[in-house]
Amino acid sequence: MTARHEAGRPSLVELTGVGKRYGNVIALRDITLQVNAGEITCVLGDNGAGKSTLIKIIAGLHRHDEGVFRVDGREVAFGSPREALEHGIATVYQDLAVVPLMPVWRNFFLGSEKRKGSGPLKRLDIGFMRGTAKEELLGMGIDLRDVDQPIGTLSGGERQCVAIARAVYFGAKILILDEPTAALGVKQAGVVLRYVVQARERGLGVVFISHNPHHAYPVGDRFLILKRGRSIGYHTKDEITLDELTAQMAGGAELDQLAHELESAGVKGAPELREEARDLGASD
Ligand SMILES: Nc1ncnc2c1ncn2[C@@H]1O[C@H](COP(=O)(O)OP(=O)(O)OP(=O)(O)O)[C@@H](O)[C@H]1O
Ligand SMILES: [Mg+2]
Q: Which terminus of the chain is more exposed, N or C, with fewer CB under 10 A?
């Protein structure tokens, strides 16, 4: 059932030369990227690189002020997240908007509650929501002990998984994940990455934001590396190795300079840092 991208068809999302300013700050400049059905596009970069700005444009929170943004081949400029959602674009933010004390199933349906009956007798269809949440989570391979437990009792990784399952259930075609693995340990990050891959297998186009090339590389199909608002690399997986991606990300040259500064300040460990920078290809 994988809906891999077919050559010749427009991408689900395509940015061409997109730029964004906040007053005098140029947050993004000349960004080009594609998100295709059945693919994961990773956006990597350090703090302040422009990752969140980029996804806020796609998610309808901010408008770009340069370049072209197309969804399914048609040019758009969203005025609100609601508009993006209507185009099938769902976003899972790092600080998930959940109500910790409400049960898992309730959070699953938050803002889209299912009701039954009509008029003044209309009430929440708890049975449906509870059953569906459980089924959908199981369908993604998430076996919670109990969908009645408050979502606040789940681990960070489990909460991310619930949010992904929810977006899939509500028919997202494009799923944006803002650093879903950033606050997680190795094992939980692995669990979340599995669901990211599952969303791709279901034919969604996924945008996966990360600081960590070790999380992005194994799952990604395309990699955009941002630095101070500019693209310093945009590659499909067959064009780049994990080592090269890590080197581009880390900016070997900067590590080298830092080692130099630390060394002149007599800090222990600086030579090792310099070694590392060399391994990252800084001195080529
Ligand atoms: N609402 C805003 N108003 C003014 N400047 C902003 C605004 N949002 C972001 N910026 C600036 O734009 C640049 C890019 O920020 P952005 O949040 O997109 O980075 P990021 O890659 O998501 O960083 P992080 O990894 O820290 O989340 C930064 O210099 C930031 O200070
Ligand atoms: Mg950010």
A: N
